[in-house]
């Protein structure tokens, strides 16, 4: 997950939580599609032979987890991520001395279902696979 931000006028309304849930739902969907249904992932070659290849011959798989980075000074965001089940797995130091936390959440099928149920969102995808998220 990268560059999640909510305008200050709209913070503390559940928007960031809904966006995180939508990200988790999308990761779970990709995981189920590519790891459970014998699809393969090959961005270099889209020919029919490649699309129909059995997963057993492929070494590529999709992770069933979400990772993110957050500044250690951003306590509101850290508290939200902890509440949503993210754990700090690494720390990095920026050149300016700030500490960046790397957080990760391992998803499960029940977590994805809970995320979808909790988020009041609509997602549409255009032909370029760019998602537009509408939070109600």
Automatic annotation (TrEMBL):
<protein>
    <recommendedName>
        <fullName>N-acetyltransferase domain-containing protein</fullName>
    </recommendedName>
</protein>
<feature type="domain" description="N-acetyltransferase">
    <location>
        <begin position="1"/>
        <end position="108"/>
    </location>
</feature>
<dbReference type="InterPro" id="IPR016181">
    <property type="entry name" value="Acyl_CoA_acyltransferase"/>
</dbReference>
<dbReference type="GO" id="GO:0016747">
    <property type="term" value="F:acyltransferase activity, transferring groups other than amino-acyl groups"/>
</dbReference>
<dbReference type="InterPro" id="IPR000182">
    <property type="entry name" value="GNAT_dom"/>
</dbReference>
